[in-house]
Design goal:
This protein is an alpha+beta fold. The protein contains two helices and four strands, in the order αββββα. The protein folds into two domains: 8-53, Pemi-like Protein 1, Chain: D, CATH 2.10.260.10; 56-86, no CATH class. The strands form two sheets. Strands 1-2 form a two-stranded antiparallel sheet.
Length: 86
């Protein structure tokens, strides 16, 4: 497993509760732009949990390209063309 050198000032300890929740320190939330209601995605990297803002993707095909936002969802231009042709 690769070790990542993280400065002591950038580390915080938290406790995972019985529901799997953990509190993200305010400084980290502010730095990441996490506000109340921000959608996040979780992934694993070299045995470490990574939390980041969820990427906006097409609700139909999952594409990240040429997205048009509709309220809190997105549709890519290709899927929008297909919808218009139905």
């Amino acid at each position: 497993m690769r070790r990542v050198n993280i400065e002591k000032r950038n580390r915080r300890t938290g406790i995972v509760d019985c529901a799997g929740r953990v509190i993200i320190p305010k400084r980290f939330r502010e730095e990441c732009g996490f506000e109340d209601g921000t959608k996040v995605e979780f992934s694993m990297l070299d045995g470490n949990l990574v939390i980041r803002k969820a990427s906006l993707t097409c609700a139909i095909c999952g594409s990240l390209e040429e997205l048009i936002e509709i309220e809190d969802k997105a549709v890519c231009k290709e899927c929008l063309k297909k919808i218009k042709n139905i």
